[in-house]
Design goal:
It is a single chain. By secondary structure, the protein is α/β, with parallel strands linked by helices. The chain has 2 domains: 333 residues, Alpha-Beta Barrel (TIM Barrel), CATH 3.20.20; 38 residues, no CATH class. The strands form 3 sheets. It has a 7-stranded parallel β-sheet with strand order 1-6-7-10-11-12-13, sandwiched between helices. A 4-stranded antiparallel β-sheet has the order 2-3-4-5, with no helix packed on it. A two-stranded antiparallel sheet has the order 8-9. Helix 9 packs parallel to helix 10 and helix 13 packs parallel to helix 14. The chain is globular, with a radius of gyration of 21 Å.
Length: 378
């Protein structure tokens, strides 16, 4: 089987030669730590790491359903350790100059009032040039993808996670209660933007999956109360997933960290049928999700990264725990978020070998035969 055939068969509970060999990635801080532990210096970002470790890859349609023509990046203030910046998304943030913190400190958000939203909306105009390849570039891109052996997908954006980023956690929480019409107005605009951009590729291509990003949960559950998710998001998501389904795309996955348990049945109702990355310490669990929802739910991720930190015995227990649902199908196991530097390079290599041995995943071709891919990635 090639990668595309294997991925589709897995996601439709059909027989496969082995489960797809995929991983989520790594925090930037992991690379210098792993370099000191044996990882080659030239493997210094996620794309190069995917190629170096020999993972199966997927392709994506070059369509933009988010901000177009972002804000001009500017450094507003700085001292020896920090910079205060205006980022491309319009947020004012404090960052560490040495890059040591992945998550910045947010100081001000681009949408804090209805007036802000009216100004921000122009950056979400579906007619903005560059959202989709122009002719003849689009035809040339499609020609290059003919006969591809990789799964092909499209991004369908976000209906709440982006709003949280643009407004901030406290502001969006107050707005849900004090100005629900504003939240729904932004959601509706995003829905219409997404539909307008994805209609053509859905019609002209055989899409294998669609992906969305909704980091809207903490370890105790969702930021948006489920009753509002059901009222505001489910109908809009159905419009998007129905368009995809009409054109044969029946795998839609959502990227959401934290405890997603209260939202899973609502996502399933809306046609979003694959959960990712299933953050175990955040309160989610692929075993429990499969027990509760059976083959209604597809799964990607769910390997507890803290078990990789704990050592080889715990890694073996974790893989054994997940083996029954891997064999059941509809599940691609990988680490449940980007791998942190607390995981040693030795433990990571042990995890990869154990996963491949347990699930009959063949070792990738020798690195020497794949160097050309790496050179292309550079």
């Amino acid at each position: 089987m090639n990668q595309r055939e294997r991925w589709l068969a897995t996601m439709h509970f059909q027989p496969v030669d082995h489960v797809p060999d995929e991983e989520f990635g790594y925090w930037d801080q992991a690379f210098p730590v792993w370099h000191a532990q044996g990882l080659p210096q030239y493997v210094n970002d996620n794309w190069r790491a995917d190629i170096y470790f020999g993972f199966e890859l997927r392709d994506g349609v070059p369509a933009n359903v988010g901000i177009s023509r972002g804000f001009r990046y500017r450094v507003l203030e700085e001292d020896d350790r920090h910079q205060v910046i205006l980022d491309w998304d319009g947020a004012k943030k404090m960052i560490n100059k040495d890059g040591s913190a992945t998550i910045p400190k947010f100081l001000k958000f681009p949408i804090e009032t209805r007036r802000d939203w009216e100004g921000f909306k122009k950056r979400l105009d579906p007619s903005t040039p560059g959202r989709f390849p122009e002719e003849p570039d689009w035809q040339a891109w499609k020609e290059r993808k003919k006969g591809s052996t990789r799964p092909l997908g499209i991004g369908i954006g976000s209906l709440f996670g982006w709003i949280r980023d643009w407004m901030g956690f406290e502001n969006v929480s107050f707005a849900v209660m004090d100005d629900p019409g504003l939240i729904q107005d932004i959601m509706e605009h995003l829905t219409q933007l997404t539909l307008s951009i994805i209609e053509r590729p859905a019609r002209e291509l055989k899409l294998d999956f669609a992906s969305m990003w909704e980091d809207m949960c903490f370890n105790h559950g969702p930021i948006l109360p489920p009753k509002y998710f059901e009222q505001w998001m489910v109908p809009r998501l159905k419009r998007i997933t129905s368009l995809l389904s009409e054109h044969g795309c029946d795998v839609v996955y959502v990227d959401c960290d934290g405890n997603i348990n209260e939202l899973v049945p609502l996502w399933l109702e809306a046609g979003v049928n694959c959960m990712f990355p299933i953050e175990v310490r955040g309160g989610s669990d692929p075993v429990k999700l499969r027990e509760k929802y059976g083959h209604r739910v597809l799964l990607m991720g769910g390997v507890d990264k803290t078990r990789l930190i704990a050592g080889k015995d715990e890694i073996r227990k974790e893989i054994a725990r997940l083996k029954p649902i891997v064999e059941d199908g509809g599940y691609i196991p990988h680490v449940d978020h980007r791998c942190p530097p607390d995981v040693t390079y030795e433990n990571y290599l042990y995890y990869l070998k154990l996963k491949r041995d347990t699930f009959a995943i063949p070792e990738p071709e020798p690195w020497e035969t794949r160097k050309e891919q790496y050179e292309w990635a550079r």
